[in-house]
Specification:
The chain has no helices and 19 strands. By secondary structure, the chain is mainly β.
């Protein structure tokens, strides 16, 4: 137990203790429409988030016939948000950015400060909770993940593997690599989470790599 502070039980029964726990709260929800880039449709955005705020990002897209890989990374005071559909299928991307950052004091309700005097939680905070694992780590994880969940979900982007393609129609044969990332497509009723390549190519698969990782997803109903 904490020497002081509060213990709160969340909806799933898990305890949340302050000051030992500082929550990730919703920093912002951002929606972007794809635009053409050559033979693909893409979203490329940099969001300004102070460099000293720890950040977690979850992304979903509207449904497309083929997977739309999504990705995110931190670059100083910016968070990169991206998605690409190499089949030139347009999409809308929604990013949920969570961070550990000072909360705004509400007009009424409750407020909790940490030991340094930073306001970390109020009745208006939208805390990141109820994370769900998608896929099994190992041979069935990574590029082999393909799971459909009821409702609207967003996934924490990850690279899942690579596929090597050999095109014997060229002389000499052309060998190239297609990177696979997580794809998370919401069709209005359910969400399909699987792997998708960032490019296409002519030829036959000739091996590749599988990270074997599982993915982490959140139900977005609490944040929409």
């Amino acid at each position: 137990m904490a020497d002081y502070g509060a213990m709160i039980l969340m909806d799933n029964g898990n305890p949340f203790v302050t000051p030992q726990s500082t929550p990730f709260c919703l920093y912002g929800k951002y929606t972007f429409n794809s635009s053409p880039n050559g033979s693909s449709q893409q979203v490329t955005q940099y969001l300004s988030v102070p460099a000293d705020y720890p950040v977690m990002v979850f992304i979903k897209t509207t449904d497309t016939a083929q997977p739309t890989p999504v990705m995110s990374y931190r670059l100083g005071g910016n968070v990169y948000i991206g998605g690409v559909n190499p089949y030139n299928q347009s999409f809308t991307l929604t990013a949920y950015v969570f961070a550990i950052f000072p909360q705004t004091l509400p007009a009424w309700g409750f407020a909790i400060w940490d030991a340094t005097g930073k306001l970390v939680l109020t009745n208006e905070s939208r805390v990141l909770s109820d994370l769900q694992t998608v896929g099994d780590a190992g041979a069935n994880g990574g590029i082999n993940i393909d799971q459909t969940l009821s409702g609207s979900w967003a996934v924490a982007p990850a690279q899942l593997g690579q596929t090597i393609i050999t095109n014997n129609a060229t002389k000499p044969p052309t060998i190239y690599t297609i990177n696979a990332y997580s794809s998370c497509r919401f069709n209005g009723g359910s969400t399909r989470i699987n792997a998708g390549g960032t490019s296409t190519g002519t030829g036959s698969p000739g091996g590749g790599t599988n990270t074997g990782t599982s993915l982490t997803a959140i139900n977005t109903s609490a944040y929409d």
